[in-house]
Structures are given as C-alpha cells and as structure tokens.
Amino acid sequence: xxxxxxxxxxxxxxxxxxxxxxxxxxxxxxxxxxxxxxxxxxxxxxxxxxxxxxxxxxxxxxxxxxxxxxxxxxxxxxxxxxxxxxxxxxxxxxxxxxxxxxxxxxxxxxxxxxxxxxxxxxxxxxxxxxxxxxxxxxxxxxxxxxxxxxxxxxxxxxxxxxxxxxxxxxxxxxxxxxxxxxxxxxxxxxxxxxxxxxxxxxxxxxxxxxxxxxxxxxxxxxxxxxxxxxxxxxxxxxxxxxxxxxxxxxxxxxxxxxxxxxxxxxxxxxxxxxxxxxxxxxxxxxxxxxxxxxxxxxxxxxxxxxxxxxxxxxxxxxxxxxxxxxxxxxxxxxxxxxxxxxxxxxxxxxxxxxxxxxxxxxxxxxxxxxxxxxxxxxxxxxxxxxxxxxxxxxxxxxxxxxxxxxxxxxxxxxxxxxxxxxxxxxxxxxxxxxxxxxxxxxxxxxxxxxxxxx
Length: 454
What we know:
Helix content: 10-25%
Strand content: 35-45%
Structural class: alpha+beta
Number of domains: 4
Order of helices and strands: HEEEHEEEEEEEEEEEHEEEEEEEEEEEEH
Radius of gyration: 38 Å
Distance between the termini: 143 Å
Largest sheet: 7 strands, mixed, barrel
C-alpha cells in the first residue's frame, strides 16, 4: 500500500466516532508522512531551491507528539513495507527527539482537510566547516500548508556511518538503514503561523516567527529584512544580545522570550511603506534558516455621492477616497419605481489621485436620465478591504416634478422676502416714532430751563 492508502486510513480514523471533548485531548506520538521532492543539485542556505531537477521523495517524521481527541484510535505507524517495490521514492526517516515539530497537527491532517503540503528537500551546507563534516550530511526541508497554513523549515542530519560498512544509497551515496531509508535527526527548525497577513492602515502588526534547536547550539543572530518592489532594507537585527531597530518603533519580543524561541517582530502604526515580504532569518554557529511573511496593508474607501450640476439632465459624481491597495471596482445601477436595478455602463472616471500617506482616490461621474417617473441611481464600490460593497444612492426626479419643486421654492422665496420687507418697514416706522417721541421729550425738558435763565 502506498502513501495514498496510508493517508486514506488516517482520514477514516479521523472521521470516526468516539472523539472526546477538547478538554480531554492528550498528547500522542504518531508518524507524520509527507510526499516531497528532493532537489539534489544546487547549494543554498535556506528557502526553496530554484533548481527544478527533482525526484520524488518521502519524509517520515517519526513519533511526533500531537494532540489526540480520540480520533487516532487504531492509527498505526508508517511501515516501509507499504511502499511500492518498483521505483520507490527516496525515503528520509527523521527523529524528532532533539527538536519538536510545531504545527504537527496541521501537517498530519492536511489531506483530510482538503489541503496540500508543499514539501521540498535539498542539500544543506553548513555555515562553518566542522571536523565531522566528512562523516555526515545535512538536508533542509521546507514545508508549507496550503490555504494560508503554517510554514516550517527544518534542518536534518544523517545518522549512519559509511566507514562501518553500511550499504550506501544509490543516488545519495549515503548510508541506508536495513529497510533502505536514510536515517536522520532534526536539529533545527524555524516556523511561522501565517505566511500572508493583512493589516489595516495605522494599526499595529505582529509578525510571528519561532525557532528551536538541538542541545549544544546557541542563538547568534536574528535578522528581519523587508523586500518590496525589487528593493530590500534591514528592519531589525539582534546580534549577541544587542538589538537595533532600523524602522522606527520596531521591536522584538522581550529577551527571555527570544531566547526561548520567539523571534516575532512588532511594528506600530503601519503605513503603506511597511508593505512587502518580511524575511525572518535565524542564525546559529552551524545553521541558518528563514521564513517569509507577506504583509499587505489595507485602507477602506470612503464613498460620497453628490450632484455636480442642476442642469438638465443632472450629473452625479461618486467620490471614492482614501483606499489602498490600488484595485477598486465601481459599478452604477439605475432603478425606476417598482422595477429592478439595471446596470449602467456609460460612467466616466477622473484621473487617479494619491495622497501623501499613499492611499488612492478617484471619482466616477454619470449623467442621470430619470425618465418620466424618476429613478434611483446607486454607486457601488467593491474593494479588498471591505467585507461587503459600499453603496450610495440618489433620487433623480423627473423634469415635471423638478419644475414644480422649483416653482414652489421660488414662491416660498418671494413670500419670505415679502415678510422680511414688511418687517423691515414696520421696524423703520417704529424706530422713527421712537425718535420723534424722544425728540419731543427733549425739547419739552429744555424749555423750562430757558425760562428760568431769563
């Protein structure tokens, strides 16, 4: 039975009844088997190889601890005898006793969750030459779960000794086990939860990157770099206890968490300039591996529908302001009373505008044709930052109603002006009378004083 049959048995076990409550889940050691490709040519220090001269391979992670909810009851370990006898894949058996494999459940259940695991194995060449290099070989394996699942890179070291008369693998020229597999042990791993992340403009971003290594290895350097549109820059570096941020506000997790294997990067108040591919690179005296996290910045558009002119027929303008990234879809519909919305395709667009913060704005204009009964025009905007489209609507009145409305407005204006004029006249007359009364009183007061002086 091939690996396909083995996966089928696993899926049947996972779908079986008798699963216990999540709180009762216990750790269980199982074999995780992955279909991979081996790239034998080319030398690199991490990441997926570019040379596509590949052969089929199989990676068996032996006795990986995973949480069991009871569905793994009856699940059996992988048997080499189940492989096809003719042209079997290059099989690597890897012990995880020194370094645990994170997200093992995602790797184990990928087939049953209708996801795929991209697995590529290639030769790894040490950072520093060691005396025991001649008696061992190293490989790096990059595993990626589809659909935005975790990404894991591991460095494995061969365990056999060719000098003791072991049978050599015909392709790799490395010692084989009696079952014809290459025995290895995992010595180093670098992992990220989600290789692609979306962050709203102005929010705080946390980029997860973790690692673990075999006993005897020490962390020497952590480096975060940003690649975007063909250019790269260093964002943060940690070297032997000294951290330095090249991007303002960038921080790593506290020192104790970093030494425990958490090299996550925190970025406050992200802008459009923070978008791109972030490379988390972990270095030890022997090994170096990395993970790539794609960061996408998003800003939701603001939509406002306005009347550009009062001439007949009127022009409607839909303003879409402050969105990012660039791609946005604007559609117009026209709906008469009691009818269904009908798409309108003769809209025009302004030139694209970009604000100082990097967001975009654009306007769409449309000549409204209300007809004899009037119509509702709707501007609908679709953007990746929106859970659902934004709509703005306006009622275009028919010409008869518009004339009547203008007549009512004109008559109302004349009536208001008449009231204001009459009020002004009354105020003026009252003021004149008050002034006359005041003047008479003043004269009457002065006359007696004049007679006394005589």
